[in-house]
Amino acid sequence: xxxxxxxxxxxxxxxxxxxxxxxxxxxxxxxxxxxxxxxxxxxxxxxxxxxxxxxxxxxxxxxxxxxxxxxxxxxxxxxxxxxxxxxxxxxxxxxxxxxxxxxxxxxxxxxxxxxxxxxxxxxxxxxxxxxxxxxxxxxxxxxxxxxxxxxxxxxxxxxxxxxxxxxxxxxxxxxxxxxxxxxxxxxxxxxxxxxxxx
Length: 198
Ligand SMILES: [Fe+2]
Ligand SMILES: [Fe+2]
Description:
Helix content: over 70%
Oligomer: single chain
Bound molecules: fe (ii) ion
Radius of gyration: 20 Å
Distance between the termini: 52 Å
Number of helices: 6
Shape: elongated
Number of domains: 1
């Protein structure tokens, strides 16, 4: 009969080991101007700050609504610009293409969750949806930083990353100028409805 407690211990031990060995974009790396990785990580830092507010359902609701108003254009422009640069480039490498497909699915889930969050006037539903949205994006950023960006950095030289950096900035700007979906939808009525509306 298998010794499950020993197996469980071994699994825990080996997964701890794996976590320690997990590659990650180093925070002590040399700063290279317009390197697309730097630009993406800057956006990630801003997103993570807003994620902390959005996730915190003990925080004042108005503050979380303000956080979502900043989060929305940043998230959407960031995702679309990533798709047109890093995702497109890494898709051409068969060993890593799946990572970009996985990322696109997570972008799609975040878009959907964002839409759901914007389309309720019930405070508790809004709060629950905002929290789930924040958790989805938090997971997504972590996966990008520990897999795709690490592989991307190994595959492409600095010059290519800088060229893609310019393209990333221009895609972000043109998205913010032209996409009507970035308009912030009014989120909540001041009073809690007696019955959920959605
Ligand atoms: Fe992403
Ligand atoms: Fe990202």
